[in-house]
Amino acid sequence: MRIDVLTTFPEMFAAQPPAALAVSIPGRASAAGLIELVATDIRAFSDNKHKKTDDRPFGGGPGMVMMCQPLWDAVHAAEAQDPRPATRILLTPQGVPLTQALVESLAARPRLLLIAGHYEGIDERVIERLAPLEISIGDYVLSGGELAAMVLIDAVTRLQPGALGDELSNQADSFSPDEAAGRRLLDCPHYTRPRDWMGAQVPDILLSGDHGKVAQWRLAQRLARTAERRPDLLA
Ligand code: 6GU
Q1: How far away, in angstroms, is 97 Cα from ligand 1 center?
Q2: Domain coordinates in residue numbering, the chain
Q3: Nearest-CA neighbor of 70 among 100, 91, 47, 36?
Q4: Dihedral (C-alpha) 110, 21, 158, 229: value to the nearest 10 degrees?
Q5: How far is CA 134 from the centre of its chain?
Q6: Residues known to be catalytic
Q7: 3-state secondary structure of 74
Q8: CA of 140 relative to ligand 1 center, distance in Å
Q9: DSSP 234
């Protein structure tokens, strides 16, 4: 899969791959060539002699607004570099929430083109013409969409075939559909040695060797945790 990132802060993606994606599963996936990350500097496409990409908002108010032209040209220049059709995505707190179901859908596409939006905003007319999928990573405000783009890249990368060392290990993760429960549940608690740590014990069932009982216990834990912490997932 090819992933383009369009940003006015390309230095965040200058390292190949960026430090946050160079380790663990995304690091291995990059090394294996499962994803190809290409950053494009929106500023380079400004037709303004000062390479300006933003201007003051019509109607007044604080902050600056990204202008249509540089973004429009950057998107088309990036798309022309590769014949695979790109799914355009704008990272913005105004977007639909990023869920594991959405990550699964995006992970199956040949190419993603991520536009890192900024809090002050982008001229609405270029958003309308580009018609990107607008995605938010949660109900809080980041200074820019670059970190949100990296979050999306991490989530999509680990679903690429061959990215996980243990192919089964993504199945029990939080938010993966649970077959028995038919829902997306939080993960169960995990334990490793020693059996006694500062007087705290490992649940007996996990030491019983009864795999059926262990599976039953884990599912019950997942359901209880989800009901307690995220009742919205069961609604
Ligand atoms: Cl995608 N961008 C920004 N700037 N802030 C966010 C966000 C995205 N998702 C949550 N907060």
Answers
A1: 10
A2: 2-157, 169-234
A3: 47
A4: -120
A5: 13
A6: 93, 120, 158, 173
A7: helix
A8: 7
A9: T
| Helix segments in 131-200, DSSP class H | 146-157
Q: For domain 169-234, is the CATH number 1.10.3720.10?
A: no
Per-residue pLDDT of the chain (235 residues; tens, 9 = 90+): 999 999 999 999 999 999 999 999 999 999 999 999 999 999 999 999 999 999 999 999 999 999 999 999 999 999 999 999 999 999 999 999 999 999 999 999 999 999 998 768 999 999 999 999 999 999 999 999 999 999 999 999 999 999 987 655 666 678 878 767 778 999 999 999 999 999 999 999 999 999 999 999 999 999 999 999 999 999 9
CATH number attached to the domain at 2-157: 3.40.1280.10
60: amino acid identity, one letter: G
**Which residues form ligand 1's pocket by a CB distance below 6 Å?**
91-93, 117, 119, 136-138, 140-142, 144-145, 148
How many residues are given for the chain? 235
